């Protein structure tokens, strides 16, 4: 008897453990599914973006039947394709690739999207076609905000050869070129694709986990029912067996649940703190009041005074500089002389004290930034870094000015090598080893010492 009681207790203990873990797995499963669901929801946006290219991809074959005949005008002859490649490399390669976006669109399947005569006309006179209001060309222009140069010096046969070459490359599919260039460039498309896959994986996993969770819960339940029929248990044991794993009260009181809640709570606090730390020193949007309410909207916007008239050193030196009161006098010795705000300028000049403008953009001393390198050498508009100053009544800092901000632009911006003999050899060297255009990162724009002394 003693022996059998012991063994019942053993079974009981085992069972309690099993049952606990079954119930535990149910909570965990529920939690994991819930979290994954949330994650899925957040990446849903990526999925939606991902859907766009797919739409065009499915639209293309439908178009193909309509334009099948002209597309057939292209040649599969190896000699034509080779000559097409030659003309392409000489005239188009700097802006186009077949399978990826460079400056212009990826040319993959272009003769399926458009008829050959349309393409010949467009490649010869893109500006004319866009100005004629051709909806496809206008949409392209709106997307790329750039008109490709005329190629009216090319013969029709040469363009057909280029298109044949493109068609041939399309059929071959993206080869090493894409694998090699996977690091940068068409990042949006790539990340879109992988996040679509991620969401799908998450959905499948979530469904599987949910099913498993239910199966476990039902298994545990029927196990406890069958135990109850077969054995004599005391009250406490019966009560335990009667516990319903689906019961909310039990769930809330259970340790795994409380544990996970605490964890989530701690994680949320940690996230807020870390995010807070990352924004320390970021002054985006900073727009202090100035001693004189000088309006860029009025001076640079309405009166179209050139930025460099007042910030002349931006083109020549490290800093853009703030104009001295004397410069204001070029106009304000006659304009609005009675205005109390203008009187402040006179007062500053009389006292020989500068106007105390409040500085807005200010990098820490550890970082080196040079205006002329960006404005004159790279040809970057002031607005790209400072926003639409000419619309601002009060100047505000519109960019982050963090290291990440500098680096991101250096990764994606091409070096302006045009008419710059300094870059000639560098461009040639670069073209030998890489298909992508020369970016700032390729000339050392990510080296610590370039920005930190
Ligand atoms: C300076 C850069 C540049 C050069 C060089 C260039 N293109 Fe383009 N191309 C573009 C841009 C930008 C677009 C987008 C349309 C637009 O706004 O003009 C484009 C569009 C196109 C399109 C339409 C693509 C589509 O998806 O429908 C074709 C076809 C094309 N180019 C062919 C050529 C060929 C062939 C050459 C060489 C003979 C060439 N391009 C040279 C920049 C360039
Ligand atoms: C008539 C002279 C004048 C013109 C023209 C002018 N500015 Fe200014 N700018 C000033 C003065 C004075 C200040 C300092 C007061 C202020 O911040 O509003 C200033 C401040 C700025 C600042 C903020 C400086 C800081 O403290 O960080 C930026 C950025 C700036 N200007 C950019 C531009 C750009 C871009 C243009 C052309 C679209 C332009 N300015 C045209 C006179 C001018
Ligand atoms: C190229 C000519 C020009 C220069 C240089 C110039 N301004 Fe002006 N400013 C104007 C004009 C034009 C007006 C508008 C006058 C009006 O509303 O009738 C104006 C208006 C103003 C006003 C508004 C005055 C009021 O009471 O409405 C202020 C303040 C002002 N300027 C400050 C400055 C300061 C400070 C500088 C030097 C950093 C400066 N301006 C440089 C042309 C200039
Ligand atoms: C590549 C980005 C970039 C471009 C392009 C750019 N700026 Fe700046 N600008 C900055 C940064 C970064 C600072 C802060 C510099 C610092 O604190 O050392 C700044 C500071 C300024 C200041 C404050 C005074 C100073 O020199 O520090 C003015 C004024 C200014 N810029 C005007 C201009 C004007 C005008 C142009 C166009 C001719 C221009 N900027 C183009 C990034 C840019
Ligand atoms: C809008 C794009 C853009 C932003 C933002 C930008 N840069 Fe640049 N930067 C360029 C380009 C383009 C060049 C290449 C200029 C050339 O041809 O020499 C360059 C070159 C440089 C160089 C010289 C690199 C070399 O190899 O000679 C330094 C240093 C530099 N940037 C610092 C900065 C710092 C610091 C910031 C942030 C405060 C910054 N840049 C933000 C576009 C940008
Ligand atoms: C294109 C210019 C650029 C390059 C390249 C660059 N930095 Fe920076 N870095 C900056 C700027 C601008 C800041 C100031 C950012 C701020 O105030 O938020 C900065 C800040 C920093 C800081 C201080 C962070 C802080 O919060 O104060 C460190 C550390 C740093 N950089 C290290 C590096 C290292 C290491 C490298 C090389 C791997 C590097 N940087 C390359 C522009 C650059």
Describe what this molecule looks like in 3D:
This protein is mainly α and 453 residues long. Among the domains are: 1-69 and 186-246; 73-182, Cytochrome c-like domain (Cytochrome Bc1 Complex, Chain D, domain 2, Orthogonal Bundle); 402-453, no CATH class. Helices cover 62% and strands 0% of the residues. It has 23 helices and no strands. Helix 2 crosses helix 11 (187-230) and helix 17 (325-332) packs across helix 18 (340-351). The radius of gyration is 34 Å and the shape is flat. The protein binds heme C (6 copies). The site of one heme C has 25 residues, from helix 19, helix 20, helix 21 and helix 23. One heme C binds next to helix 15, helix 17 and helix 18.
Number of strands: 0
Radius of gyration: 34 Å
State the end-to-end CA separation: 86 Å
Structural class: mainly alpha
Ions, cofactors, ligands: which are bound?
A: heme C
Shape, please?
flat
The helix fraction, in percent, is 55-70%
The helix count comes to 23
Mean pLDDT: 79
What would a concise description of this structure say?
With 453 residues, this protein is mainly α. It has helices at residues 2-42, 44-66, 68-71, 78-91, 110-113, 116-124, 126-131, 135-144, 156-172, 176-180, 187-230, 235-242, 248-253, 255-278, 296-302, 307-310, 325-332, 340-351, 371-377, 382-386, 403-412, 424-433, 448-451.
Secondary structure layout:
Layout: H1 2-42, H2 44-66, H3 68-71, H4 78-91, H5 110-113, H6 116-124, H7 126-131, H8 135-144, H9 156-172, H10 176-180, H11 187-230, H12 235-242, H13 248-253, H14 255-278, H15 296-302, H16 307-310, H17 325-332, H18 340-351, H19 371-377, H20 382-386, H21 403-412, H22 424-433, H23 448-451
One heme C is lined by residues 281, 363-364, 366-367, 402-403, 406-407, 410, 445-448, 450-452.
């Amino acid at each position: 008897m003693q022996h059998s009681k012991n063994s019942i207790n053993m079974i009981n203990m085992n069972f309690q453990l099993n049952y606990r873990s079954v119930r535990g797995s149910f909570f965990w499963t529920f939690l994991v599914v819930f979290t994954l669901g949330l994650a899925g929801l957040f990446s849903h946006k990526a999925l939606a973006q991902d859907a766009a290219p797919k739409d065009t991809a499915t639209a293309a074959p439908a178009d193909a039947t309509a334009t099948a005949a002209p597309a057939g005008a292209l040649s599969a002859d190896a000699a034509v394709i080779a000559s097409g490649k030659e003309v392409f490399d000489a005239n188009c390669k700097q802006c186009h690739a077949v399978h990826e976006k460079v400056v212009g669109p990826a040319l993959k399947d272009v003769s399926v999207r458009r008829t050959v005569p349309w393409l010949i006309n467009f490649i010869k006179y893109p500006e004319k076609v866009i100005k004629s209001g051709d909806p496809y060309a206008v949409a392209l222009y709106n997307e790329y905000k750039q008109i490709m140069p005329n190629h009216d010096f090319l013969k029709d046969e040469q363009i057909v050869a280029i298109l044949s070459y493109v068609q041939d490359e399309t059929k071959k599919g993206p080869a090493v070129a894409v694998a090699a260039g996977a690091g940068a460039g068409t990042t949006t498309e790539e990340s879109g694709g992988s996040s679509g896959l991620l969401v799908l994986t998450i959905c499948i996993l979530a469904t599987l986990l949910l099913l498993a969770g239910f199966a476990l819960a039902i298994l545990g339940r029927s196990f406890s029912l069958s135990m109850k029929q077969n054995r004599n248990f005391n009250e406490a044991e019966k009560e335990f067996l009667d516990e319903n794993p689906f019961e909310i009260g039990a769930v809330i009181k259970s340790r795994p649940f409380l544990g996970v809640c605490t964890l989530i709570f701690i994680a949320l606090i940690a996230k807020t703190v870390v995010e807070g730390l990352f924004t320390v020193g970021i002054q985006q949007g900073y727009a202090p009041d100035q001693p004189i309410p000088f309006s860029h909207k009025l001076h640079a916007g309405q009166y179209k005074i050139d930025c460099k008239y007042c910030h002349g050193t931006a083109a020549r030196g490290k800093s853009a500089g703030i104009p001295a009161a004397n410069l204001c006098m070029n106009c304000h010795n006659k304009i609005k002389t009675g205005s109390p705000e203008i009187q402040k300028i006179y007062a500053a000049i009389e006292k020989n004290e500068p106007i105390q403008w409040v500085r807005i953009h200010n990098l820490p001393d550890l970082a080196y930034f040079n205006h002329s390198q960006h404005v004159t050498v790279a040809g970057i508009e002031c607005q790209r870094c400072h926003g639409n100053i000419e619309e601002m009544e009060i100047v505000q800092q519109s960019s982050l000015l963090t290291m990440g901000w500098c680096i991101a632009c250096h990764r994606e911006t091409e070096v302006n090598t045009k008419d710059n003999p300094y870059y000639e050899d560098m461009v040639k060297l670069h073209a030998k080893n890489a298909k992508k255009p020369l970016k700032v990162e390729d000339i050392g724009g990510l080296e610590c010492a370039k920005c930190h002394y």
